[in-house]
Specification:
It is a single chain. The protein is built from 8 helices and 8 strands. It is α/β, with parallel strands linked by helices and 249 residues long. The protein has 2 domains: 35 residues; 193 residues, Glutaredoxin (3-Layer(aba) Sandwich). The protein is globular. About 17% of the residues have low confidence.
């Protein structure tokens, strides 16, 4: 059998040529995978606490992954610990499971703000926590927002977190507490003690039980319990269409 190219090289040179070739192959494969993620708008990048593989999602789906529509009973009911934006007696409820570090959540946030303007009195918006394990600032940011909620500034704080997502850090959370006129000492004690970690975990697990597999994961529910699941950062037209569908029932 004729000698291969590598057989003609000194052993040390052959090793480095092989090593560099392997790196180039892996780099090319990684580039292809990354390109595919960009085209799809989502990637599976880490494990949640329950071992599932959640994602940031940006897919135009209004049904669950298995093609079924989850029953309203699967979504934890709104309770006093929830943060409600809009008329508490509105006929339509949007429950969103979100992650402050998720880029698609920050993209979806203005969509929901527009919904609240255009459907004033008809929609109430509940934002629940679903921090993904591969987002290191997701849980700290959620705790920071809950500590702001103690002083009735949850929504103002959440808006700013999404608007300034690239700044997420302990220093920024404190800066934001100052900017919003909070009692910073009270906020800091709450934040340092991770006071709301149990609440955040409970909301996360509630989302898992409801079938949420990525962020943002939302449910649009009418007063009769009819529910339309929204997976990903859908455009305003898709969300408003789902709301109109339920309002027409």
């Amino acid at each position: 059998m004729p000698n291969s190219f590598f057989d003609s090289l000194p052993s040390k040179t052959s090793f480095w040529v092989g090593f560099i070739t392997a790196i180039l192959v892996l780099g090319t494969l990684g580039f292809i995978i990354l390109g595919n993620c960009v085209l799809k708008g989502s990637c599976s990048l880490g494990l949640a606490n329950n071992g599932d593989v959640p994602t940031d999602t940006n897919t135009d789906l209004v049904v669950a992954d298995d093609g079924t529509v989850p029953t309203p009973e699967a979504v934890p009911v709104v309770n006093d610990s929830d943060h409600v934006r809009g008329d508490k007696n509105a006929p339509i409820t949007v429950i969103e499971y979100s992650d402050f570090e998720c880029p698609f959540c920050s993209r979806f946030h203005p969509t929901m703000q527009q919904v609240m303007t255009d459907y004033n009195g008809k929609v109430r918006w509940i934002l629940r926590h679903y921090p993904l394990s591969f987002h290191p600032e997701a849980l700290p940011a959620a705790n920071a927002a809950e500590c702001a909620a103690e002083q009735n500034k949850f929504w103002e704080y959440a808006d700013k977190l999404f608007e300034n997502q690239e700044s997420l850090s302990s220093d920024y959370y404190k800066q934001l507490a100052t900017e919003l006129g909070l009692n910073v000492s009270q906020w800091q004690t709450c934040y340092d003690n991770s006071k709301y970690s149990d609440k955040i975990e409970s909301q996360y697990q509630g989302g898992v039980a409801a079938g949420v597999t990525g962020t943002p994961g939302s449910f649009i529910i009418d007063q009769d319990g009819n529910a339309i699941p929204i997976k990903g950062a859908l455009p305003y037209s898709s969300v408003s269409s789902a709301i109109d569908q339920l309002l027409a029932k």
